[in-house]
Amino acid sequence: MRSLIFCCCFISFAVLHAEDKPRFRTDADGPVTGEPKKKNPKSQKPDDKPDWYQLVDGEFPPEGSAHAVSGELIQVDHLERRFQIRVDRNDSQDRGVMDLPLEAGMLPYGSIWYHGAPAALQDVPLGTHLHGLFYLAAPDDKTPLPETSNNRKSPEWQFRRCLRLEDDFTFHSKQKQLWKVESVDLDKKKLSVTLIENGQSVGDGKAKTFDLQSSTRVFQGHGFGTLKSLQAGQTVLFNITWATLYGPGRITAIWLDEQSRSLATEHQRETHRGHIRDRGLAGYVTAVNDKQRLVTITFFDGVDSQLFAELKGINEETQGWPFSFPEDDPKAPKGGIAVSRECLMTYDPVNDRKGGNIIEFAKVPAAPGCSGVQIKVKCGMLLEGYRPKRVVRFYPATWKVEALPQEERFEGRE
Asked: For the whole model, what pTM was predicted?
């Protein structure tokens, strides 16, 4: 009897721990070395690596399911939120597949970070070294690959949907990491630094030597410094270009103290706020009640929290179209909904948005790409694009909605 009880307990313990393991492949399973040949499911063995997570339209992915790829930004289509990076060299690559491009598009809920704050693709200069989280392309994606000599492909070529992009400044500051200056050689334009976290060295603790340039921008306090401002013992952050080509990389900009870093972050945050106020908060339509004309929107993340706080603002002057209907409450928060494409481009939000009172604010579980902020809007009229799993952009009534530049409107391109 005791043996039976022990056996049952052991099986239950094993099942529970098996469920704890991700049911998809992660970076912990090893590097991507090329296009793997998929095995017949019937021939899969328990020790075989699982497949990479495949995204589901209209849903947010599970934590830890993305694949990390870093590289240098070499091409951008900011309207369609598409880009190319030259993938960093690493020990898993053969020489023949080094320095090849990866072309990808931002997911609707994909976020971009620059100088420690949310950003848009047009904020990030070409040549900036970036860290990204990616997912496999959709099974029916027929987008041609970038042209390369001998039609070579990066081992990462299948990861064509991006969840997050961030520069080195953001990548390290997010982890509370800084570079400690060990030595400066201005004659040879070399900077030797050690990565530290909470005052302790990270990894093997060995110093790395980056290249300085005569054009390297030096930020110190609330102004500018020069290369001569660099001193041993300083803790700094910097962005680089030409990473892994001829060493760790060339420094394009360096921030010598906390004040300069905070100013850079605040400037980018204000740039982001202005960008979103002009274009609306993006999210998925989670549910629609046709009879009651209710639209539930779950907003994407990668947005400054102040913008979500502005959802609750009151503008009693917006009594006319598109907000006016008999049950409208002039003293309640309200806003308009514009139909959006997957790349977040709208059509004509000045004229084609509909909306009304926000009748409910809710918190939902946050997930990669999901902010956890949800609203329910009572609309005067429902548009065809207000369907579950469709992307929309929401304009609180306190935001002035002006016509976007012609190239940013998809109107007439169908």
From this structure: 0.90
